[in-house]
Amino acid sequence: MRISVAITTYKRAWALQYSLESLLQQSRKPDEVIIVLKPSGDGSEDVIRRYYDKLPIHVIEQKKGNFTDAVSMAIRHSNGDIILFMDDDAIAEKDWVMKYERTFQQQDVGGASGLTYIARLEDGKIIRTNEIFYPHTPTKEVFYRRPLPQFSDYCGWVSISGFMGLKDCPGPIIRSALLDGVNMGLRRELVADCPLDILFKKSKRGVWNEKILAICIVKKGYNTYSLREPSLAPIVWHIQHTQSLTRKKSFWQEFWLHYDRVANFWRLKRLGVNVSYMAYLASLFVALRHKPLQRLLATIYALIVRI
Q: Distance between terminal CA atoms of the chain?
């Protein structure tokens, strides 16, 4: 099994060194490391250059486009049977690649995500914690959150409205479409033709792109999983900081985040998924209870441009 690791990076020279160093320490070495670099003048090239003779690095320069364009570029240029994604400000445990390799030995696994914990950078030292970076809160059982038929037995799903749904499920491994881009593995052949760059062309944040990848995988007869037991789950630590391009709190941040939520319905329709227009309208109305101005404007914009 040939395994590629993909990192998309922009303005993260300060963090990229920690990510690459963690790949250098892997018990099962990656067969290639794809770095999609959008130049920013922050010295990322110098950081990468220090690892050329230590890791099988292949740099792809992204001259234009958004985050999902970078993800698509990584998939297209990868030679691996499996492609593992991690953020440029994340640190992988030493058995990260090995655990994914073991997971994908199960023939029905098309995609999977492991555990992501919080790390803090204090006085130049990385402090690793056991705090979950993305806590998954169960959603209410309402009709517009019902899972699409292909996710009827999933614990985390894409719903008939295009929004996400989640319920509590016991067990170390659960079926879930809620892949996390900071820490996920994909069977490359299943997503090679998934049109992320087209579906997210007008997006500024690429929110839920991993869930679209899950749709592409499940449509081909495979399953996607969430691994939750630390002894089985590939683990990364996400460095907590204030320089995130997708988590800044502002008017436009919420506008573009909600645009992606609203646009997801039309992305699914483009993929031929049988979503419900009535459920979609209901979910849009309910979503306006929070941050109504930004979300109303984002909703109107998304309905006009339709992706």
A: 36
- Report the C-alpha gap between 276 and 282 in whole angstroms: 10
Q: Report the C-alpha gap between 201 and 204 in whole angstroms.
A: 9
Return d(Cα 186, Cα 203) in angstroms, integer.
Answer: 22
User: What are the tens digits of pLDDT across the range 213-272?
Assistant: 999 999 999 999 999 999 999 999 999 875 544 455 689 999 999 999 999 999 999 999
Q: Which residues of 14-36 are buried (b: 16+ CB within 10 A; e: fewer)?
A: bbbbbbbbbbeebebebbbbbbb
* Reduced 3-state DSSP string for the chain: CCEEEEEEECCCHHHHHHHHHHHHCCCCCCCEEEEEECCCCCCHHHHHHCCCCCCCEEEEECCCCCHHHHHHHHHHHCCCCEEEEECCCEEECCCHHHHHHHHCCCCCEEEEECEEEEEEEECCEEEEEEEECCCCCCCCCCHHHCECHHHCCCCEEEECCCCEEECCCCCCEEEECCCCCCEEEEEHHHHCCCCHHHHCCCCCCCCCHHHHHHHHHHCCCCEEEEECCCCCCCEEEEEECCCCCCCCCCHHHHHHHHHHHHHHHHHHHHCCCCCCHHHHHHHHHHHCCCCHHHHHHHHHHHHHHCC
Rounded Cα–Cα distance for residues 4 and 179 (Å) = 18
**Residue type present at position 243:** Q
pTM of the model: 0.94
pLDDT at position 245 is: 45
Which among 108, 70, 101 has a CA at the least distance from the CA of 84?
A: 101
